[in-house]
Amino acid sequence: MGGRSLGRRGSELAGMAATGRRVTGEKALIAALRRQVSVRGARSASELRLGMGDDCAIVRPRVGEEIVVTTDFSLEGVHFRRDWHAPEAVGHRCLARGLSDLAAMGARPVAAFLSLAVPEEFTVARGGTSWVQRFFDGLLSLAAEHGCALAGGDTAQARGGACFDIVALGAVKRGKAWLRSGARAGDYIYVTGALGGAAGELLAVERHSRKFVRLAQAERGHPHVFPEPRVKVGQRLAAMREVHAAIDVSDGLSTDLMHLCEESGVAAELDAEAIPVHALAMEADRRGWASSGLELALHGGEDYELLFTAGPEVRVPRKIAGVEVHRIGRMVRRAPGKPRISLRTSAKRIVAVEAGGCEHFGKSGD
Amino acid sequence: MGGRSLGRRGSELAGMAATGRRVTGEKALIAALRRQVSVRGARSASELRLGMGDDCAIVRPRVGEEIVVTTDFSLEGVHFRRDWHAPEAVGHRCLARGLSDLAAMGARPVAAFLSLAVPEEFTVARGGTSWVQRFFDGLLSLAAEHGCALAGGDTAQARGGACFDIVALGAVKRGKAWLRSGARAGDYIYVTGALGGAAGELLAVERHSRKFVRLAQAERGHPHVFPEPRVKVGQRLAAMREVHAAIDVSDGLSTDLMHLCEESGVAAELDAEAIPVHALAMEADRRGWASSGLELALHGGEDYELLFTAGPEVRVPRKIAGVEVHRIGRMVRRAPGKPRISLRTSAKRIVAVEAGGCEHFGKSGD
After folding, report:
1. For a Cys staple, B296 with which of A296, B100, B196, B227, CB 3.0–4.6 Å?
2. HSE value, Cβ hemisphere, 13 Å, CA-based, for B340
């Protein structure tokens, strides 16, 4: 029949039975994946009532909780390159983006769904394992670490580069999710970990990609290749019930803080000396790859740290779940003619900070 | 800074504020979309507590209900072609796939999330409107019809063809979602509407694409270009509480019935004369585009009808929510050496039916 490649939907992960027969192509991929999932992702949240194997998965939140949902693309050539990133790193980073969004709501991970379109060569085993299997190794390792089951998705063959869309579902106490709009003038601004590390490491990857593509196992100290979503910090903070607003630092401190300010109708004053600059950002500075470490900390993307605000009366610990927390400034009333974000430099000058994150369709003009 | 196009995440639909300033590229797309959504998608399910505008959306199911989740890719060159399908049809079909999965669980639509990666030219206005805006016109029309809010997603610029991933969330009474594994020997098998129409129309689109690409508004009678997900039928059937198992006919009757049989551990006997063959499948037969209308009804994909089973004592109405329902066979015990699916032809012969759906990575060998 005509139109073989068009007009039929790709088989869904959720819709495929793992049969005992020899199967080819997509079905083989899905069967292999289901085996991997059943081995690796054994620890499922009780909220997941039905995972892969039907038209839909079923999620039942606990009494007094509600469900938060986020989706994130990972596209070859945009978010990763096959000559720069090991498949395990691509899988890890794919899920990390979703988990980081859950962390930014103070939510507990419940389930993830992955739609993947990959070129055929990614499914061919080389040295006993295919690109896609290694991708799932990376993704499922991170999922297991956070008790997040892979509950479904969709597959298709890509005509161009590989394309992944991760959907992450989390659980949060009713009405207690942190919003971007909750910050108040007078709040202190906090950030977890250190900033600019992912941008600093990316500059190194660009220059020495062969060294980094060999990193196939999640290791600390690689904020670009294996970012650590702040899921546990988020849950500890949620238990404290003192956070007013939060966002994850994915587009860069300046851009994400601008979101907080705009949604909350406030302005921010940052103290340059208080901003924790990651060692890899400092190193990029020393090597002359960036104008300064602080520049990377302010505008570099993909740190996946938590940026949050709390009232001045709150004592926020300096370390939460093993991660340092830094107070970097405060929220103030918005004043006409004054910048949304101002920065007090080490020379005690006040400068305006513009949102410096990138736009995929062109340079951000504002 | 180096690595502009790599290493930063795309801005999320959920994360963007519609500011009053002139914005470019991705931000403009998102702002335009948020305006479209607020105009078109006014009727939100009460379960959606927070839509676009934060790291995550928030969904709170009603007391006694749980949430079902499904994801579906729509890829250019695989699921649609820009020279065959109007943007409105692409948007409609994209969401229809998700809604059809909800219908197959007996669920009520609550919210959809869309991740889209499109080439830059799709965002450029031609004759006052861009491809993407027309895409959203089609998607949001169908969403409004089914009370399904667009609650978030992600955007990126595609390096190759356009890529869409739809996530659909629905609500269903706790423990009452229809599973593929619920069919019992002795059940009658039912199907809504007629089969083979989408495959029949696709054969016509292949031959006369210019006629079909002009179809920019959802019209009945175009099962390939504007499929009608059986959401209302599903909810009426769910209220009857008599359905044992269900699936939507997306990969073709033979493939989807095979899933039901395998997951339920039963076999199926179909009556060829009882299978409702769509008029467009008959026409494809008359024109010599297909070996027979019945062939398209058995193996053609994307009909998005509901296939379900119920006990022999149940009286299933012949019409539900304006859609005809046909009894096409029955489930029987699996017997060694006998086919999973057998068909009694008009000549009273019994033939084995193989799953005839397509595999994206090669021809299905089983």
Report:
1. B196
2. 17
From B125, B152, B173, give the residue that closes a domain: B173
Phi and psi, residue B172, nearest 5°: -150, 150
| Residues B200, B103 share a domain | no
Contacts of B107 in chain A (CB under 8 A): 56
Q: Which residue of chain A comes nearest to B258, CA vs CA?
A: A17
Beta-carbon neighbour count of residue B38 at 10 Å? 12
Residue B19 pLDDT greater than 90, yes or no: no
Q: Is B209 part of any domain?
A: yes
CA B75 to chain centre: 14
Interface ipTM: 0.86
Q: Is B291 found in the same domain as B155? A: no
The answer on A192 and A164 residing in a single domain is no
Whether residue A5 is predicted with pLDDT greater than 70 in this model: the reply is no
Q: What are the Cα distances from residue A23, in Å, to B251, B263, B265, B300, B339?
A: 17, 17, 19, 21, 18
Determine whether the interchain pair B159/A75 forms a contact, defined as Cβ–Cβ distance below 8 Å. Answer: yes
Tell me the nearest-neighbour CA distance from B215 into chain A, angstroms: 17
Report the distance separating Cα A131 and Cα A116, nearest Å: 13
Check: CB of residue B266 under 8 Å from CB of residue B288.
Answer: no
Specify the pLDDT at position A366. 30
Tell me: pLDDT of A333 over 90.
Answer: yes
Residues A286 and A319 in one domain: yes
Task: Quote the mean pLDDT of chain A.
Answer: 87
B148 and B117 in a common domain: yes
HEC readout, A284-305 = HHHCCCCCCHHHHHHHCCCCCE
- Nearest-CA distance from B308 to chain A in Å? 13
Tokens of A12: 């869904």
Closest residue by Cα to residue B231 from B292, B322, B153: B322
Q: Cβ B1–A180 below 8 Å, yes or no? A: no
Q: Do A160 and A185 sit in the same domain of this protein?
A: no
CB contact under 8 A, B113 and A69: yes
In a domain, A257, yes or no: yes
Q: Which of A153, A173, A193 is the last residue of a domain?
A: A173
Q: Which domain holds residue A270?
A: 180-352
Question: What is the total count of domains within chain A?
Answer: 2
What is the distance between the alpha carbons of residues B172 and B66, in angstroms, rounded to a whole number? 6
**B185 and B132 share one domain:** no
Tokens found for residue A149:
């089951």
Dihedral sign, CA of B68, B33, B28, A117? positive
pTM of the model as a whole: 0.88
Q: How many CA atoms lie within 13 A of A307 on its CB side?
A: 32
| Separation of alpha carbons B102 and B94, rounded Å | 14
What are the tens digits of pLDDT across the range B28-43?
A: 666 667 766 665 554 5
